[in-house]
Predict the structure.
Amino acid sequence: MQPFTAKVVEVIKGIPAGKVMTYGQVAAAAGSPRGARRVVWVLHSLSEAHSLPWHRVVNAKGEIALPGDEARYTQRAMLEEEGVLFDGDYRVDLERCRWQAEKLEGDE
DNA sequence: AAGATGACTAGGT
DNA sequence: GACCTAGCCATCT
């Protein structure tokens, strides 16, 4: 596993309930400011086994990024359950619910 | 090695 | 706000 992947996991684990982060933020916190798409890839490879709060990661507009209606509905339900405020049907209130993680530069 | 792909983003129309 | 384009970067064909 690459260090970047490990950092992404750490960052996402650090998002408290009721808060969300964007792909760009997660990538930056993991040390790759332009690596939003790498985060996507990491999530694809992790989505199965880990009990990671992946649902707290949304795109830059605050929208749920999952494809398909069912998955999006489920994610929104989980977020609302945690107290995340929604701006629209599938858009969270980023101003209120964005979480600023600490940057993890050094090795862990 | 070259092109396509993805749960992305920023900037322009 | 909706839509398009050009960057982005690891992985897969």
